[in-house]
Protein 1
Amino acid sequence: MALPKQKIRVMAATPIEVAGRRLLPSVLVRTIQGETGPESTFQIVQLRPISVVEEGPDGTRWIEIPNATTHALSMMAAAGAGVAVVSLLILGLVALMRGKAD
Amino acid sequence: MTDNPRMMTEMQEMVDSINVDRVFGPVEDLGDRQIIPIAAISYGFGMGFGPVEEFVPESTPPAADDAQVATAGGGGGGANARPIAYIEVGPEGTLIKPILDEQKVALAGILLGAWTVGWLGVVLKTLFSRR
């Protein structure tokens, strides 16, 4: 069985005209395609908006589209890893101090 | 890939209906400001075909080489769209307001709390235990 092929592209969506401004969105497209046998196939596609370029009377501006949920989850994962590291450090110090005291 | 044109056509229609423009919703006019919803979309499908291997008793004479072999197959797919932000165009200019998935964050918060309490328990047990 061959490994699935992954393709990542940044594609421009159709510009949006709103309130005298022109918004040019871009989307990250991640495609995973594979064949699990001679007559079987699968495909997974993820579309994630990444930014909008605004063209207006004030000029051109690039605006990032944040993923607040992913950011919050990443922060929580980092906090969890920090708790584990600090706890292991304390446990190591306690073991070291008790070893010296004996 | 496969010789089942109907299933391939339906799958292709599903794929064609989801393109990058679907990520940005239609402009909603709210008076002095306009709102454009933004979603993260993912979809997937899989299908497979193969010859049918049916039970043939030993007493049955062997089939001719040119006998037709039945084929069977199946497939399935799904799509998911999750709102992640919206664009607000108003008198202040163009702003992007993120949307937090509170259910996921709350679940992760509970897991983080349990993780922290567990580590705290291990540390306190070690500190106050006899040697």
Note: Chain A touches chain B through 51 residues (CB under 8 Å).
Protein 2
Amino acid sequence: MLTIKDLAVSFRTRRGEVNAVRGVSFEVAEGETLGIVGESGSGKSVTSYALMRILDAGGRIKAGEAVYSGVDLKRASEREMQGLRGREISMIFQNPRAALNPIRKVGHQIEDVLRRHARADAQNARAKAIEAMEAVKIRDAEARYDAYPFELSGGMCQRIVCAIALACDPKLLIMDEPTTGLDITTQKAVMELVTELIRERSMSSILITHDLGLAAQYCDRIVVMKDGAIVEAGDPVRLFARPGHPYTRKLVDATPREGASIRELLPAEVRTPEPPRRISDEALLSVRDLVKTYAGKSGPVHAVKGVSFDVKAGQSVGLVGESGCGKSTTSSMVVRLLDPTSGQILFAGEDLAKRPSAGFARDPMRAKIQMVFQDATDSLNPRHTSRQTIAEPLRAMAGLRGRARAERIEELADLVGLPRPLLDRFPHQLSGGQKARVGIARAIAVNPDFLVLDEPTAALDVSIQAIVLNLLVDLRARLGMSYLFVSHDLHVVRLLCDHVVVMKGGEIVEQGPTEQVMTAPADPYTAELLEAAPKPPARDAA
Amino acid sequence: MNTMTEIPTVAEPQAPPAKSKGALDHVIYVLKDNPVTLLAFAMFAVLMAAAVLGPALVPYDPLATNASEALQPPSAAHWFGTDNLGRDVFSRAIVATRLDLLISVAAVALSFVIGSVLGAAAGYWGGWLDVALSRVLDTIMAFPLFVLAMGIVAAMGNTIENIVYATAIINVPFYARLVRAEVNIRREAGFALAAKLAGNTDVRVLAMHIFPNALPPMMVQVSLNLGWAILNAAGLSFIGLGVRPPTAEWGIMVAEGANFIVSGEWWLAIFPGLCLMFAVFTFNLLGDGLRDMVDPRRRT
């Protein structure tokens, strides 16, 4: 149905021509789901953009051919392409909120595509749009028709995007990281909905993702891309059991899965034994009945309703839950960026909740509690080089100047594995993994006792995630820090944490030692979270 | 005991080490990349040269009258002709550059500073401060700005300083609004929170981390504003406020020359008018280049 042969795409940039895709060939048969797996920069998204002919300015298809049901996508006129897009081939984008027009009602956005392809007219557009919304299992579609994207949750927005993509019964659906940024339970719901619809309508589809586990679960065939070329293709079970290419093996290794320890995520050649560490019996941090209530338009909003937990010195505690469960609010209060409504935050015996967050920057305790942020890009000042970023806490809290500071910065760079020449680069000149390292170096610069990690690997590729998680394990042992690891993914939490706290709707539904919570969850919600994670096929022990 | 030894970690694939580029290299790159920017900076250099060296270079004393040479059309001796008192229009137009640039740069600098402080405070702390400041600025903007400037100069007295103050006041709201918006969207940004965690006080987070990120759009505003400020100063002089004759100033020269256009002596008003146009055009072109220079993301 879709045949791509030796496709090459290049971009004109300031530093000359960049070949993003070099000689990619694959086919998609009718009714087949093909997975394209690769890390950022592998050219997987560019390949799909080239098929839709929506490449950025400066990009062009340099060579090769792409034929869809007899139509040459490379030579088709813009007019022909407009007829194809949406009606024959449609696409689901990565960030559903960005893919929807923020100032147009979602119902109207569905109508737009229906009317563009003459599937509806002014009289029946509304009815057909609601029909399309019901097809993607949006409850109460009639009422949601008039909603704006910001009024809907991320998962609901992605359903609307699906409804738009599927409204005109396309034959081929391209999904570009459809679930990145969604909660793990929402991811499962969206993926299952889409696969069901694809099967019902016997469509073909291409699933582009960096998550090998996700691809393995939902695709009939997988191609693995690296640096613009396909390194391996095959069916998912075989790829997992006997990865042929070293890169595939690395990806398979790095995918968190049941039974694998944190060191097993790394390639076998570089594994070192996990360093020993000491967990004290005394609590370093005790959170008691912490409450945060916001004044909302329609009455108070209870973001956190009285949570209590302990973190012992040297211990790592995972704080798990979906977005909106209050885990980020809790961590913001613990790290003293936000004042709680009531409750205690006992740190080394002192109640920090009594000290207002506004003046906490000058508090001697400031250096003891630090944080690594979720989005490494957002958390680095775009105008500061890595060196300036790491220097900030050293200047403000340790009072280091000149030579001593420069030495400490280089020491920290070595500690987090950031090559020294990169210290003089700006954030936009660094890769995701390098930015994460800068963020970690900044957080540990003043030797904190307690580190809050807010999904530090959520935006990273799996192989980089594996490296960063292992770095955190090494640092914990070396510097004797305690972690509060905030995440929505229990399988990542399991790798790093001794104790898990599961939150839902502002309350703790379950807490206990990691192994116990993972193997015998007491609360149905914990079981649901565990169930939702993609299950990659087993791999050979060898 | 040295606890800070290197942990062997797995090396990520690394980009080839880039040459670290200094600010000067970046400026040169921006100039090379965009011929319009290069042109704008060349024009700016001409203006600066005229402002700094002008009085030393011009062939005639801009204030010296010569009744026998009055109202001469442009010639080899008097490139732009002479005015009704026999003063050389070319010399006067060149000498006027310094005064006009001084007024506009001073006014823009003043409104940049005041607007930045007010806007940054309103955007960062919000609440009643934001509401109060925003309404005051809205009130200023509700007046016809040129009329407001006229009123200020008329009330405070007819001096060059007062032209600067009046021009600054009418421009403050534009800066304040721009900075307020830019600061507001970055108030909760990760890097601002991280700066607080690094032990910075709110004022420092605002001044050292958030505000500099608002500079690129500010530069566009500054350059457009310089053009406006020149027009504004010339406009005030044109209607007889501010700079007084016989001082050489483009606005006055146009005002005085306008009376002679009907009788065919067009050169009195046209040439200073063209100078004014040249200056405004230069500043308008300058904006994009300035923005690219202060934006580190443009560096590779």
Note: The two ends of chain A are 38 Å apart (CA to CA).
